[in-house]
Design a protein that fits this description.
homodimer, about 400 residues, alpha+beta, BirA Bifunctional Protein, domain 2, Rossmann fold, five-stranded mixed beta barrel, five-stranded mixed sheet, 9 helices, elongated
């Protein structure tokens, strides 16, 4: 991609109302733009990063036999009356011309449960697991922390269906394992802590995955030896002790909840009378689990964890481009040599951002490149061309390397 | 993908209220499911097809320097007041807790125009083109024809921004060319006709791309020699003549509008006072074009064009899987041989649907396979295994081929 074609430009200053680092860098770098509080447009560089995040999530979930669907955003309010969730205060409502009331999906239990009910009749049809990447709508009283708590945001939600609670528990553990692999691949593994949280009415605990960062909205208490944490909300319920080792030596941390896993038991299947028939012909309620992973939140969390004072430092696995080719060439022959190098990289199948913009000083180009944060920078200049080389630098620091043009 | 894991099942009968062939086959095959009139869930096989369609569209648009964005679905109503479109009758509205009114996006001029305005100041910043794949919401009085006229549907919309009308016209022709390539790759090229339609207030004509099919909602008049058509709506305006050759020998056809291209001139940029500065420092309104392509509609149109009485016949380019491996094996050694073949194909990177379901007769499996419509069927049975072969059949017909196991 030629940077001269890209419609976004980097901004020197972030909007004053954006206090979190992730929002500041993502807006300044041209990854997202705020339409209004809690609602953001994803710009070309952001689309690239999100697609890489989603690719990783999809791969790991397909490995545990989850199937991708794409469910509607418009839900009949009757489904919420059945589950008793038509009164929750974060719902957006809309209406058809005939007066039929609709809910904008903030979660999809009310759609996925009756959908699976159409296809699952017998124990032979279980277990099943379905997931989607969807826009979610939450009528938040206050939107804050940039893309962290949005009124409209992108999320991966997954729902699993089982004969028994023990089979649901087996799958719950598989999802936890898949999530760990996802966080590792997103370079969030170390900073992301499995956290005990309220299980609601149908389970003692649920589990959140909290990424430790000073700008986090949540407070958690970390047990360093178990590498688990307890959400502040339930500290009284666990008597201030780690639920795994009983230790009281817990450290208070700020964190962002990027994912959660819930045991739903028959909370939603009962509401829809969704049962299956066992081998003896007896009917039982189907047992459910649900598993969220905030895609836009994860984007923000990655920036919170991977940045310095100059900008973002993308992990390789999700960087918008594999390399940032920065040309400092101005003379025609040099520009042509830089163009040729770019075309050669593209022909090799390399996904490269090519800073071919004319009229900018080297310092301006490097500042932009630091802000955008592509992990590998390849500098082509009259000086490097004179030596038949390019200069290669890692965004994370270290000494430059000089690579011969023919070796690229 | 093992078919035994897939949560969907084929249905013998389509719901009675689905009259169009595309809806009948897509529902019976397990590609989509209706939540309520005009609102469908996309199921795993449907997600695969849609992702292939979107991949082709994305590739062709990136070739004409369009940049992918992902814009919000929630729009401030003030933006519609500026363009005077807050009164159009297909809008869904919702409201925040503080009373702020929002529109659910049915098109994105009101969001993309002020977005580009933030980044475009000078002639040097033009031209630009951005596109997205988004869910669109239309408060239709009546939803009909399956996924063809939905209240919620998936669409590719693109917007281009130019210094002059002649530059916008140049890009308009590029998009037309990209669309032709897309339709060819989607096996809709022959059936899809460029159609003159109303240009609205800002242009004499717009152009639609109409796919000829007996179940189409639109009526067009085809000029066979020019391979263009005229939408019935403007037949009086063109005096019943082909606008290209003047012929009156036009044939009436039913068709589905799967895409359209519009010249917007300064209709939307004026509403936002979106100007650019030319080389002499003078300000001019930015000139716009917009280019829609219905993704769920295209899915439906492909099924309308590519089916027989037994089910869908997917074009290879967008088939949910490259091959349908149908096992008729029941004895353990045979089942193991079939499993091994499946694993070998997966290891080769082949995306295969494997009908490993036990307890079904061959006729039932073939009927399902005909309905689902994967272009290549590979049958493995005790008989073929005895000869160390598989039987390969094309969904479109013709004689079976026998291929040795070792050659696969």
């Amino acid at each position: 991609m030629r940077q001269s074609i890209l419609f976004t430009k980097t901004l020197k200053e972030a909007p004053k109302d954006e206090v979190s680092k992730n929002a500041q860098f993502l807006i300044r770098g041209g990854f997202v733009d705020k339409l209004f509080a809690g609602v953001y447009s994803i710009l070309p560089l952001g689309v690239k990063v999100l697609s890489h995040i989603e690719h990783i999530v999809r791969e790991e979930l397909c490995r545990i036999d989850a199937q991708e669907v794409f469910l509607p955003a418009l839900h009949p309010v009757e489904n919420y009356q059945k589950t008793g969730r038509d009164g929750i205060d974060v719902l957006f409502f809309t209406e058809m011309h005939d007066g039929k009331r609709l809910v904008l999906g903030q979660s999809h239990e009310e759609v996925v449960t009756p959908l699976l009910q159409k296809y699952v009749q017998s124990y032979k049809d279980l277990p099943k697991s379905v997931f989607q990447f969807q826009t979610k709508f939450r009528n938040e009283l206050r939107a804050k922390s940039g893309i962290m708590r949005g009124r409209e945001f992108r999320m991966k939600d997954m729902y699993s269906f089982h004969e028994t609670q023990s089979d649901a528990d087996r799958y719950y553990a598989l999802v936890e394992d898949a999530y760990r692999k996802i966080f590792d691949r997103l370079a969030l593994g170390e900073a992301t802590i499995k956290t005990y949280a309220s299980g609601g009415t149908f389970s003692k605990y649920s589990h959140e995955f909290q990424t430790i960062t000073s700008s986090g909205e949540d407070t958690i208490y970390l047990c360093e030896s178990c590498r688990v944490a307890i959400n502040k909300e339930i500290m009284a319920d666990v008597n201030g002790q780690c639920p795994e080792c009983g230790s009281r030596a817990l450290e208070e941390k700020k964190a962002i909840e990027i994912a959660n896993i819930f045991k739903l038991a028959d909370r939603f299947t009962n509401a829809f009378s969704f049962t299956y028939t066992d081998q003896e012909g007896k009917k039982h309620p189907v047992i459910m689990g649900c598993y969220g992973l905030g895609i836009t939140r994860t984007l923000g969390a990655i920036v919170e964890v991977h940045h310095d004072e100059k900008g973002i430092i993308w992990p390789e696995s999700i960087a918008p481009y594999a390399a940032h080719l920065v040309s400092l060439c101005t003379e025609r022959a040099d520009v042509e040599a830089a163009d040729e190098l770019y075309h050669r990289l593209v022909a090799q199948g390399k996904d490269v951002l090519y800073d071919d913009r004319a009229g900018l000083r080297a310092g301006e180009k490097f500042a932009d490149s630091d802000l955008i944060g592509i992990p590998k920078r390849v500098i082509v200049s009259p000086k490097t061309l004179a030596n038949n080389t390019v200069e290669v630098r890692q965004r994370s620091g270290g000494e430059p390397e000089y690579v011969s043009l023919s070796a690229i």
